[in-house]
Amino acid sequence: MINSLRPYFKLISVIWLGWLLPFIAIGQNEAPAFPAETPDKVVINNIFVIGNKKTKRNIILREIDLQRGIEYDWEEFISLVQEDQKKVYNLQLFNKVEITPLFTDTEQIELLVSVTERWYIIPNIILNLADRNLAEWWTNQNRDLSRINYGGRLVHNNVGGRNERLRIGGQMGFIRTFEVLYSKPYIDKKQKHGLAIQGMYFTQRNLQVRSSDNRQIFYSNEDEDILRRNRSASLTYTYRGSFYNFHYVTAGYTNTWIDDDVFTQNPDFFIHGSNSLEYFALRYNYRHDKRDNILYATQGQLLNLALTRYGLFGGDDVQDWEFTMNANKYTKFNDKIHLVSGLSFNAFFGQRQPFTLVRGIGYNPYFIRGYELNVVEGQQVLVHKNSLRFKFLDLGYNIGDFVPLEEFAYFPIKLYLSANFDHGYVNDRNNIPENVRLTNQYLFGYGLGLDLVTLYDMVFRLEYSINSQNEGAFFLNIRAPF
Predict the structure, then answer these.
(1) What positions does the domain POTRA occupy (predicted)?
(2) 378: which residues sit within 8 A by CB, 6+ positions away?
(3) Out of 57, 100, 192, 427, which could bridge 380 as a Cys pair, Cβ 3.0 to 4.6 Å?
(4) What are 129-161's pLDDT values in tens digits?
(5) So what's the pLDDT on residue 56?
(6) Which residues contact 288 (CB under 8 A, 6 or more apart)?
């Protein structure tokens, strides 16, 4: 009976995994095992890769710094094995990664890279909120079910076994969207250059038109007409000259149409005197990423720098520059305690921007815990987030007897207690009267949190935070804050 139902269990599991994909990273890393008595130096004679039924061998070897025929000090070798294992794991192509040295002589080894592949073609179910976070939907929007987005995507995370990504999806509900994305990380034999292309179309019948008292104000007209229609396309060139450093150059086009009714609610929604906003943009982005786990890191660092030019031609409706920085440091003191500190900065060079380009605290990734219900908008944003975490529970269960798929057979549970302190500042050059309560002043929030990290690195956070206005509340969030 169980065997006859196995194909249906498999289909249900794949669909369930597809719904989780927006929140998770795949995999469990195994710590590398080494012999009790170790030599002073080792030389790698060969590198073998097993378990990669779909993924090309060169995609895996691209992440491995260890080379054949080179003599390594043993301590250096151990460090490189651990780093290489993390890099292969962070490809998000495998459930398990193990790199094991096999001794053929006193100082001669064969290196065995063993991987367990994940599902690559996933029917991805879209079921999410249109709002910034759960607290915004629950409190400010009165748990309005019409604000739920639903739909589906077909996601292929390893087209041709070369780590290419293909995503095609459609979404209904609060925001109606159609999107297509194709990325190829390497288009050359040396695996340094890549390309990605993306297109998106979406419409909204209920639209944020302004903010007041640092809360979002939404509007829909009596006929429930479409209030916003957006078309965008982009082409991205990537260069990866070393393991941890990435360069991106993106050229994009955006066309946004707004119904005239929107201007009755906010005459300054656009600032160029038309209800159609059209512009080309060019962005350069540098990323240094050396984290042990890209969704819930406990060690390493991340640096993102971006400079964007809006308006490449004289006829473009936006002419502005934007600079963005995000720097996170993850310090691991021991297996149980680690500290995370993240600094984020955003600045527009111009005096005013269309409402569609508004930034500030409350819009991802700029937030201060305790201000989940607020938006603080302006031209310059500076936020510094900090968490000291203590892991007090680390369990794992083998549920393979109940689950027909190896990918779901291990169920981990990790619980972290976190002490949090965030602070920041938003500079609003325009001093909009209805939002002066929180703009142009120092803001902070602090409190305690409980982080649950479970199957496939899913993260659930329950936090109690108090802000600088002495407002305290519990907040439930999904995904790590850094």
Answers:
(1) 42-118
(2) 359, 360, 426, 427, 428, 429, 439, 440
(3) 427
(4) 666 666 676 777 677 766 676 667 778 888 888
(5) 93
(6) 244, 245, 246, 301, 302, 303
Write the pLDDT tens digit of every residue in 28-52: 455 555 555 778 899 999 999 999 9
Give 229-283 as a DSSP string.
Answer: EEEEEEEEEEE--SSSEEEEEEEEEEEEEE-HHHHHH-TTSSSSSSSEEEEEEEE
The single-letter code of the amino acid at 394 is D
Task: Kindly state whether residue 20 falls inside one of the protein's structural domains.
Answer: no
Alpha-carbon distance 359 to 347, whole Å?
Answer: 9
Residue 5 in tokens: 């139902």
The one-character DSSP state at 424 is E
DSSP 72-112: EEHHHHHHHHHHHHHHHHTTS-EEEEEEEEEESSSSEEEEE
The SS3 of residue 293 is coil
C-alpha 14: how far from chain center: 21
Q: What pTM was computed for the model?
A: 0.81
Length of the chain (residues): 482
User: 409 lies in which domain range?
Assistant: 121-478
Q: How far apart are the first and last CA of the chain?
A: 46
Which CATH number characterizes residue 87's domain?
3.10.20.310
Cross-strand bridge partners of residue 390:
337, 417
Identify the bridge partners of residue 345 per DSSP, sorted by sequence position.
325, 382
Enclosing H/E stretch for 5? helix 2-20
Same domain, 218 and 283: yes
Rounded to whole angstroms, the Cα distance separating 261 from 267 reads 10
Q: How far is CA 378 from CA 185, 203, 353, 365, 404, in A?
A: 35, 26, 9, 15, 52
Looking up residue 412, the CATH number of its domain turns out to be 2.40.160.50
Predicted local distance difference test score (pLDDT) of residue 20: 40
pLDDT band at 4 (very low <50, low <70, confident <90, very high): very low
